[in-house]
Structures are given as C-alpha cells and as structure tokens.
Amino acid sequence: MPHVSQAPVTAPDVEPAPPEPSTFGEVKGWFSAYDQVLFDWFLTRQNEDHEASGDILELGVFMGKSAIFLAGYLRDGEEFTVCDLFDSPAPDDFNLAEMRDSYPTLTRRGFETNYLAFHEALPTVIQAPTSVVADRVRPGSCRFVHVDASHLHEHVVQDIASSRPVATPDAVVVFDDYRAAHCPGVAAAVWAAVATGELHVIAVSASKLYATWGDPAPHQAALLGWLEGRTDLWHGVDIVHGRPLVRIGDEGVTAPPPPKPLRAPAESEPQAPAVPAPAPKAAAVRPGAHWRRLAKDLLPPLLTRAIVARRRRRA
Fold this sequence. Notes:
Layout: H1 33-48, E1 55-59, H2 65-71, E2 80-83, H3 93-102, H4 108-116, E3 124-126, H5 133-136, E4 142-147, H6 153-166, E5 167-176, H7 184-195, E6 200-204, E7 208-212, H8 217-228, E8 233-240, E9 243-250, H9 289-298, H10 301-314
Parallel strand pairs: 1-2, 1-4, 2-3, 4-5, 6-9
Antiparallel strand pairs: 5-7, 6-7, 8-9
C-alpha cells in the first residue's frame, strides 16, 4: 500500500520555520558520537547483507537529527517513515504537558526544513500518535526501528506494541532514554517487555538500548567481533533475565562522516580591500611663526617681548 506524506502544516499561528541548517551539527537534537557509530555499524551490516532487506521507521523525530542520519542508509526501493505529533493537539493532558515542557520548539515545518536541507524528498510523514503506525505501515516491513517519542510510560508501552507488528523477524529496534533519570516511564516499559521475554536486548549504550524481537545471538556475535578491534569503545557482557547483553561505552570515538547538505553554505560577499584614509595635510605655517614658537619655548619672556617689539617697529 503506497504511503503518501500529509500536507505540511501551514496554519497562520504556527511559528515560522527556522533557518535552513548549513551543517549537520546545526540541527538540534541529542545523538552522541558513539550512538552514531553504532547506528552506522548496524545499518551498514544490514546493507551488506542482501537478505536483510526492509524499510526504516522512526517514532518521534524532534527536529530531524537522527532522521537525517537514518535516511542516508536507505537502499533502492526501501521506504523511510517517521511518526510524530509535531504541533498537533496532544491526545491527553499529560502528553500535552510533556510537549510544552520538553518540546516547545517542535513543529512540522521545522523538521521539514531541516530534513530537506540534506535530502531531496521528505520521508513518509505520519502526523499522529504512534498508535496508528500499525495501520499505516506494512506488517513485517521494517528492518530498523528507532523509538524516541514520548517519555510517558503508557505511551512507550504503545510505542513498543506499535513497532512489533511492522518489524521484520530480525529487525533492530532501538529505544532512546531507556535509563535517563528524567523519564523512568521509558525504563519501566522497555524492561517490562524484556522481562516478559518478548523483547531481546542486543546491547546498551549510555543513552540507547538496542534490541530485537528475534534471536539476538547473531547480532551479538558480529558486534563483539567488531568491538574487539576497537580501542575507542569499551565493552563488557552482562547476563540479564538469563540472556547476555553487550555494554558499550565511549573511549574517545569519533562520529562517522556527517550527512552533507544539498546546498553549499552561502559565502559572504567579498569585502573590498580597505583603502587607507589620506594623511591629513599639514597646516600652512605663516612666515615667522616657527621663529615665534621657538623663541617662546627657549628664551626668557622679557627678552622675547623685546625682540618681538623690535621686529614690529621694523615692519
């Protein structure tokens, strides 16, 4: 079923779109260098495996930083779908308070402006709660899902429920803020899914939990082999709920090359070289003026007046 992006929000009371970013670093958002490295590894590994085909889905986009990044890994024929409320009315008072406190600058226009600075066309945009995703995205079609929407427990439970039917059996599902102190609802929802045996953890970083609905062992074996050769990431293995998971931390890793904007940054107009101001002309000196200044400085006043009077009588 083809997915058609909804029309951009153009209500007159919507804040104007921000200036188009000229670099990836100018896009607002939270996306650490080592999570960018991990996203790159998982997605590149999928791209190199011709059997790991499928689409990409992101729940919660903020201003588009991770969406811009994810879109760079799409292969021909694959689709990228994002879902966010943006500036639509929140479904309940708690969600409304969260949007006002955490995402006061989020607008669809802002997201689209940022995204189109790096990609020719928008992804499929679902401007609605994540509960509609299962009805809008083909079942079993997504190989990579990034969940970074609401921090409220009941909404994250819905995000988990929405992402499962649209994921391929071995899809990588990434949850943001699974351990952040300011959003315990995310941790409660994600770990509950792990405890029931539905969700299987592959690895965790400081900010994100990488999981799958299928068998995590092939992902973990490949990941550990890759990590063994790196000195800019540390790792360890823990057993949680009877299964291993890989812990990964930053040891000075450098993010992969950032997405490049479609348009080169505008160069400022060359400034004309500064022309030095002409030196001020020396004031004309009347005859005798130099002598009078010298006499005033060097001779006693009485003698100076006598000389001046004598010169006047001669004139």
